Amino acid sequence: MQDQRFLESDWDYCVVLDACRYDVFSELYDEYLDGTLEKRRTNGSSTPEWAYRTFTGDHDIAYFSGNPFINSLGIPLNELKWGASCDYDWSADDHISEVVDVWKHGWDEDLGTIPPESMGESFRAHKDLVEGADRTVIHYMQPHAPYLSRGKGQKLKQIQKGIRRQGEQDGETDGGLLAAVGDTVRPRVESVLDDSNIAMKVGLWLETGIGGVVSDGTRETAMRYYEENLRIALADVAELVESLDGDVVVTADHGEAFGEDGVWEHHIETYIPALMEVPWLEVEN
Predict the structure, then answer these.
(1) CA 69 to centroid of chain Cα atoms
(2) Is 64:138 a contact under the CB 8 Å cutoff?
(3) Could you tell me the superkingdom of the organism this chain comes from (predicted)?
(4) Buried b vs exposed e over 111-121: b needs ≥16 C-beta within 10 Å?
């Protein structure tokens, strides 16, 4: 298995599916996309680490970001409360020529996340940036939770509440969204339980609901919603790809763990296969 070689590989458009495992992707992708699939090793087990280790120079890229860690606000990752365990002095606007904050203007209040269709809408609305850049990245939030079929995205809703609270306090309209992530439920629980297995599961329980967990178990319930999220994203990606003229790759920043090696979700510098093995699909147009 070779390294991801994200920037060293040849592509005009790269679709990044946030937290997409190779094994789940490999079972589903050919229902939506044609192409040559490889398993590659990413260079980070979470978005902050992946971004920090991938974008190290100056890159002429139009980056449509559904993930708020990659943003145009100029806030270094190590200054974000959510990234308390992250000491990366990195911000996207220092390395990427154009970042479009889809995580901000494409937000869906009912779903509690950035739905896949917001990515395509933003891409079509900023064709001037695409034409002016050397390459383009479209970074979907899915299959990462919140799970769309539930329509109750608890984690990102907490982020939105945070930006409103900090905006009221500081008179700001942007940076508060990121700085306030530390006020979410999961980090407070983890600080008390010291990153125990139970603490890691709390984030999933918030997204899956306790009913399914009781009847089917945490792993089975979370995997079901995760696969649904990936299917929804792949359907949108397939539609978007049809409009792209150039070489297209679909990959992920990192994977997602469902109890492997005692790990749930994804965490910085946690190098297990579930988090490090990602798809690399060279799409056949």
Answers:
(1) 9
(2) yes
(3) Archaea
(4) bbbbbbebbbe
Q: Distance (Å, rounded) from C-alpha 238 to C-alpha 206? A: 30
pLDDT confidence bin for 265, thresholds 50/70/90: confident
- Global pTM reads 0.82
pLDDT tens digits, 89-147: 999 999 999 999 999 999 988 888 899 999 999 999 999 999 999 999 999 999 998 88
List Cβ<8 Å contacts ≥24 apart for 236-243. 236/116, 236/117, 236/119, 236/120, 236/140, 237/15, 237/17, 237/32, 237/33, 237/116, 237/140, 238/32, 238/33, 239/120, 240/15, 240/119, 240/120, 240/123, 240/138, 241/15, 241/33, 241/283, 241/285
| Number of neighbouring beta carbons within 10 Å of residue 124 | 11
In a domain, 55, yes or no: yes
Q: Token match 């984030």: residue?
A: 203
Domain that holds residue 71: 2-147+219-283
CATH (domain of 85): 3.40.720.10
